[in-house]
Amino acid sequence: MPVPALQRESPERTWHRDALTQASRARLFNGQLPDGRVRELSLLLFARAVAAEQPLPHPDLPASTLEAPGLDPFLTSLCEFDILVTAIAGVSVEATTGRALLDVSYPNFAAADGRRANGVLPTLVFDPEARRALVLDADDEQLARVLGLADRVARREGQRFWGWEGYTDDRVRSFVGAQPSG
Q1: Is residue 4 part of a domain?
Q2: Is 7 helix (H, G, I), strand (E, B) or coil?
Q3: What SS3 state is found at 94?
Q4: What digits encode the pLDDT tens for the residues 5-24?
C-alpha cells in the first residue's frame, strides 16, 4: 500500500527524493574546505544545523547536548528518521532492486556513523505496534527485502563519506538474512 504523504505524481517517485536530487544537482550540498577544495556534504548535517536553531524540534534535549562532542543525539534522531523514511518508501513501492529504492528515497543516513541509524531498527522490525504504524501490513519477507536493499545501497553510498558499514544489531542482521529475498 503506498504512503500518500511521500508520493508525488506517481507511486514510483517521491517528493522528498526529487527535492534531494534537485538540491544535489544545484550543488547546494557542497561546502568549501579551508584549503579551497569543494566537498559534498550530507543533507543531514545541513538539516541538523537548521533544526538545532529551532526550539520545537528538540524540546527534550538540553542545549549542551546539541553542542557537545561525541555521538550527538539530535543527529542520531535525524539518521533514525532517515532510515525509517527509506524503509517506509521502499515498502510502499514494493521495491525489489536498489534502483527502485533509490527512485523513492536516498540513504542520507549512510554518510554518518552507522550506530546513529541502527538504534531504531529493532523497534521497526520487532515491535508489532511500531511496525504496523510505519509499514502497515508489510510481511517479514517484504520488510527484510527492503532493509537488505537499504543496506546494500547505503554501503555503496556510505563509502564516499566513510559512514555506513551495515546493521549492527545481530537480531536485525538475522531477520534480514533469514528471508528468501534478504
Answers
A1: no
A2: strand
A3: coil
A4: 444 455 556 666 666 666 66
DSSP string, 16-76: HHHHHHHHHHTTTTEEE-TTS-EEE--HHHHHHHHHHTSSTT-TTS-HHHHHSSSS-HHHH
| Radius of gyration of the chain measured on its C-alpha atoms | 17
Range of the domain at 33: 9-178
| Separation of alpha carbons 46 and 39, rounded Å | 14
Give residue for cell 541502527.
Answer: 118
Provide the residue type at 164 as one letter: W
Total structural domains within the chain: 1
Global pTM exceeds 0.85: no
SS3 category, 14? strand
Q: Report pLDDT digits (tens) over 114-172.
A: 788 899 999 999 999 999 999 988 999 999 999 999 999 999 988 776 678 899 999 99
In a domain, 163, yes or no: yes
Q: Is 79 helix (H, G, I), strand (E, B) or coil?
A: helix
Q: Map grid coordinates 538539516 to a residue.
A: 47
Q: Is residue 3 part of a domain?
A: no
